[in-house]
Amino acid sequence: MRRFSCASLLLLAASAQAQVTDTGGYLQRMDADGDGKVSVEEYVQWMMYAFDRMDRNADGVLSADELPGGKGKPITREQQRQTIIERFHKQDANGDGFLSAKELSAPPR
Questions:
Q1: How far apart are CA 7 and CA 9, in angstroms?
Q2: Strand pairing partners for 99?
Q3: Which of 25, 29, 72, 99 is disulfide-compatible with 67, CB 3.0–4.6 A?
Q4: Are the CB atoms for 10 and 87 separated by under 8 Å?
Q5: Is the CB of residue 5 less than 8 Å from the CB of residue 62?
């Protein structure tokens, strides 16, 4: 159930922030320093938005009642952060430590 919850959080992060209709626009929104690529830190910051919004009591843990569907194993902020970092590295096809627009638009690996 934890994988479902993490995946749900990632999907919520993508839709919860301002809607962006193209990959270039999405990259611009994630690219906090404006260098044209997304670092792991920028990716984590963007994707943790959903966790922080869902953590209604701000205790750093999503309990069952805070998870999508109201059930599942609790997940800590650090567990979610680690999951996001793993997903970043899977998306980083060329292994340069950054995500390009092309890598952001690619299907999950």
A1: 5
A2: 38
A3: 72
A4: yes
A5: yes
